[in-house]
């Protein structure tokens, strides 16, 4: 374990909880639904609910996660502004792909009855191939399933051809949160973002729906300009961001222009799960700590900066 990872593991839980509070809806399904309702009613922001949990190893625990997702679907009901996201390893991909497929199929079947879209998140590159195969196989049976592509991976352009051809797929396009080695992935952010822009063009050309998932305003504006230039219908894309990242102004600007904005809203059934998840995320990508501190500082600055006298 490196120094950064050790520091993250040693950070006291109350501190992790304090820093992470804006990024997690809470420790119950009710809290998550309330959050989603409030975001919709006050800001017309749509949401995707994500039950925190990944890398779960016991079948019994995985079945418990599946049952929780079925409860989530029942709680969402006909609220068309809420979708769900899940992690393949949370459904058992790393212990038995067939078991994982059955689990997600159960969720998709229930979600279909309410017209709820389900996104299979993308995890580390060890799971890219199996996740895309899983997505394709489920897509043969269910039209409410989509997945995620990461622009940092060299393989992604080929994956669009190999794994999505012939589908009108529902794709979230992001840079990818996992640091991947130089033999399989781009290493520089500007290149990764240019690649996202290029991949977006290809996905649209092929007729796929794209959730453009980034908080980088310059990149986002480039993507939206491309949509305009190519006359992409508004039903074929949306913008996605994470709960807690302060982007209210641009979110509202986009919503007002008629393009949907969806926030990714993680919730846990216990704070222990939430804290374990956040520590893992910070360890995978220590930049998160700087993001969190930067965002906190922005909020504080807005609060303490000298106000202009009102006229
Ligand atoms: C809706 C959504 C779903 C995602 N799903 C996946 C997935 O399935 N698989 C996957 O590998 N990755 C996923 N990601 C993460 C994504 O790949 C990036 O790691 C993340 O969005 C940061 O990249 P960026 O494009 O926002 O640009 P960056 O340059 O990394 O970020 C731009 C700015 O946004 C803010 N910011 C970005 N990320 C965070 C954060 N986590 N916390 C606080 N502030 C932040 C910071 O102010 C930063 O300076 C998802 C992202 C979103 C928005």
Descriptive labels:
single chain; 311 residues; alpha/beta; TIM Barrel; 12 helices; binds flavin-adenine dinucleotide
What does this entry look like structurally?
It is a single chain. By secondary structure, this protein is α/β, with parallel strands linked by helices. It folds into two domains: 1-24 and 269-303, no CATH class; 43-267, TIM Barrel. It has helices spanning 3-10, 13-20, 29-43, 59-76, 97-113, 128-141, 156-164, 189-205, 217-229, 248-256, 271-284, 287-304; strands at residues 46-51, 82-86, 118-120, 145-150, 170-174, 209-213, 237-242, 261-267. Strand 6, helix 9 and strand 7 (237-242) form a beta-alpha-beta unit. Helix 4 (59-76) packs parallel to helix 5 (97-113). The model has no long low-confidence stretch (mean pLDDT 89).
Please indicate the count of domains. Answer: 2
Which spans have pLDDT < 50 for at least 5 consecutive residues?
none
- The spatial strand order of the largest sheet comes to 1-2-3-4-5-6-7-8
CATH architecture of the largest domain: Alpha-Beta Barrel
């Amino acid at each position: 374990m490196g120094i950064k990872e050790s520091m993250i593991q040693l950070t006291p839980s109350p501190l992790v909880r304090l820093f992470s509070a804006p990024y997690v809806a809470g420790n119950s399904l009710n809290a998550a639904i309330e959050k989603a309702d409030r975001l919709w009613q006050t800001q017309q922001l749509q949401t995707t609910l994500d039950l925190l949990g990944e890398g779960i190893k016991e079948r019994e625990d995985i079945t418990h996660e599946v049952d929780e997702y079925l409860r989530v679907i029942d709680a969402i009901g006909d609220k068309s502004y809420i979708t769900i996201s899940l992690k393949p390893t949370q459904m058992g991909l790393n212990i038995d792909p067939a078991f994982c497929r059955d689990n997600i199929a159960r969720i998709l079947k229930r979600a279909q009855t309410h017209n709820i879209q389900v996104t299979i998140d993308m995890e580390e590159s060890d799971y890219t191939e199996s996740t895309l195969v899983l997505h394709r196989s489920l897509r043969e049976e269910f039209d409410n399933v989509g997945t995620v592509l990461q622009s940092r991976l060299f393989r992604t352009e080929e994956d669009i051809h190999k794994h999505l051809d012939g589908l009108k797929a529902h794709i979230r396009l992001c840079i990818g949160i996992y640091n991947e080695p130089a033999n399989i992935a781009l290493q520089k952010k500007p290149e990764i973002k240019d690649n996202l822009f290029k991949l977006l063009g290809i996905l649209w050309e092929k007729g796929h729906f794209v959730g453009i998932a980034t908080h980088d305003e310059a990149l986002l504006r480039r993507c939206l300009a491309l949509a305009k230039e190519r006359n992409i219908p508004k039903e074929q894309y949306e913008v996605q961001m994470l709960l807690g990242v302060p982007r209210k102004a641009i979110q509202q600007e986009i919503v007002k222009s008629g393009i949907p904005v969806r926030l990714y809203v993680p919730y846990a059934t216990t704070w222990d799960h939430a804290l374990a998840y956040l520590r893992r995320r910070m360890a995978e990508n220590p930049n998160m700590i700087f993001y969190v501190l930067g965002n906190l500082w922005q909020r504080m600055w807005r609060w303490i900066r000298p106000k202009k006298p009102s006229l």
